[in-house]
Amino acid sequence: MSLDANDKPILFLLDREFEDGQIPGQRFFCRHSLLLEGALSSIDGLDAQLDVRRIGFARPRHEVIAEIGEKDQSLPKLVLPQGVHSDLASGAHQDRQYISGAEPILAALNGLLGIPVAHP
After folding, report:
1. So where are the chain's domains?
2. How far apart are CA 52 and CA 60, in angstroms?
3. In which residue ranges of the chain is pLDDT below 50?
C-alpha cells in the first residue's frame, strides 16, 4: 500500500536508553522497542515510510496522548493513518486505529508496507 508522505503511520518507541524513577541508578532498554529499532535499521527504506517518534519512559506521555488518548500509553505503538484499518488493531481513538506490541506491529507493517516477515 502506498501512503501519502503527509499521512505516514506513526511509530512510537521508548527511547533507546532510559531510567525508571522507581529503580534509581539503573539504565534500561525496552526489548520490544529494540526489536523494532532493529527492523528500522535492517529493512531498507522502512524508516522513511514511518513517522518514528522516540518517547521518554516517564508518564504521562503527552505526545502519545495527543494521538491516541490517555487510556493506553504503553509502548511500542503504531498509529495508523485515518481511514487505514487493520485486523491487528488493539484500539482506536478519533477514527484512527493503533496497534500495540512489537510482533503485531511487524505483522501490520508486512500487510501495510510489504516488509519481510520473520523466519519461523
Report:
1. 5-113
2. 19
3. 1
